[in-house]
Design goal:
Blueprint: H1 4-13, H2 23-36, E1 40-46, E2 50-57, E3 63-65, H3 70-77, E4 81-83, H4 96-99, E5 106-113, E6 119-127, H5 135-152, H6 162-167, E7 179-186, E8 194-201, E9 204-212, H7 217-231, H8 238-253, E10 260-268, E11 273-279, E12 284-287, E13 293-296, E14 316-319, E15 325-329, H9 342-352, H10 355-368, E16 375-382
Antiparallel strand pairs: 1-2, 1-6, 2-3, 4-5, 5-6, 7-16, 8-9, 9-10, 10-11, 11-14, 12-13, 12-15, 15-16
Helix pairs in contact: 2-5, 7-8, 9-10
């Protein structure tokens, strides 16, 4: 059994209890629901006498009693828990969460740990109907839980090397007739872990943004590796390039958990046609000339996690008309935008300032805050 006093102290030291919802954690819960097809998902932190849900889908509230909860059992035993049919398991059959609301039948969870290794919560998926849960499912849930852990601990100082930071930035931005392109990156500390790239070849603008999950030299090198992998063999489609980077990153990391969210896309500069593949990133938008937003949502797992399932990646397509702007950013931008209306703030900034001015404003805000995470953003506007 765990040392409860030490566990509670570790949880409180993370300073995440009773904090607002976080889009970076929310997108993992959305992805878990999408991957497993369950009605309920939760990132639950086990406080002294309650569960605080940092993120949840389908549970209807951000708090619940700790007593009798399946998540409390998972944390106290510090091990993954899979219950395929709670009503058929003696230990859980009389549990109030089974006999009463929400009449739980299926539960699967992975412990979430503090930086010191203490179990502080769970990533869990739930259903009111029994279901089977095989080894591949457990591996995927374990990977998603690792991603949540990295997000919850993101405020620790990055330990990247200066040479790595320099390598993550393109020497200069391409000049494309009929388009305005602006991009910049601001490190949270002395060094950065985001990377972006924009290259023009034969009338096609290929752009990449990747964000290595976690802290330290390992994630930094994963970002460098991702850029190198995606930049080679430019004749590949964006889907082929992402798939190959995914396989290579899986081989590179061994037993380590090195995940990279990424966007890799082509813009046909003559027609404005966009072909985009998203690896767990979910932060690419089109701001139309009429002021409406279109989000090109995440549909795939991050690089380094995709080999856990046999699902084929599928590109998303749209078209930039004259006056439209494509915006892609790292999740650090979320920390410096208006929490109540981030889209409105972006739209107003781009209305008042051109893409160069808007990107410069993002960098200014990141330096002013200072932002707790790296901020990378680029804007591509089709002028005609």
């Amino acid at each position: 059994m765990i040392d409860e006093a030490r566990r509670q102290a570790a949880l409180e030291a993370m300073n995440i209890l009773d904090t607002p919802a976080d889009e970076r954690v929310d997108r993992v819960t959305r992805l878990a629901q999408q991957m497993f097809g369950v009605p309920m998902v939760s990132v639950s932190l086990i406080d002294r006498d309650r569960q605080f849900r940092k993120s949840e889908i389908g549970l209807g509230g951000r708090e619940a009693p700790r007593k009798d909860s399946f998540c409390d059992y998972t944390v106290r035993h510090d091990a993954a828990l899979v219950v395929e049919d709670a009503s058929a398991v003696e230990l859980f059959a009389d549990n109030p969460f089974v006999t009463g609301d929400p009449k739980l039948r299926f539960y699967a969870a992975q412990p979430l740990r503090a930086p010191g290794g203490e179990p502080v919560g769970t990533l869990c998926i739930l259903d009111t109907a029994p279901r089977s849960f095989g080894e591949a499912d457990q591996a995927l849930l374990r990977d998603l839980a690792s991603w949540v852990q990295l997000e919850l601990a993101r405020d620790q100082e990055l330990g990247h090397a200066a040479l790595v930071q320099h390598a993550l930035r393109p020497a200069e931005l391409p000049r494309v007739p009929g388009y305005t392109i602006a991009a910049a990156s601001q490190a949270a500390g002395r060094l950065a872990g985001d990377m972006y790239d924009l290259v023009l070849r034969d009338g096609v603008l290929r752009f990449t943004l990747a964000d290595a999950m976690g802290k330290g030299i390992g994630p930094a090198m994963a970002a460098v590796f991702t850029r190198a992998s995606l930049a080679t063999a430019p004749g590949r489609s964006v889907v082929e390039a992402i798939d190959e980077a995914d396989v290579l990153l899986e081989c590179l990391q061994g037993d380590a958990s090195l995940f990279v969210t990424a966007v890799h896309a082509d813009i046909d500069t003559a027609s404005g046609a966009v072909e985009l593949v998203d690896a767990g990133h979910g932060l690419t938008f089109v701001l139309r000339a009429d002021g409406t937003f279109e989000q090109l949502r995440s549909t795939g797992l991050p690089l380094g996690m995709g080999a856990a399932i046999a699902e084929e990646r599928v590109a998303t397509r749209t078209v930039l008309a004259p006056g439209d702007m494509l915006i892609c950013c790292s999740d650090g931008l979320l920390d410096i935008l208006d929490e109540q209306d981030p889209f409105g703030q972006v739209a107003e900034t781009l209305k008042v300032l051109d893409p160069d001015g808007a990107v410069a404003e993002a960098v200014r805000l990141a330096r002013l805050a200072p932002a707790p995470d790296d901020v990378t953003v680029f804007v591509i506007r089709r002028d005609r």
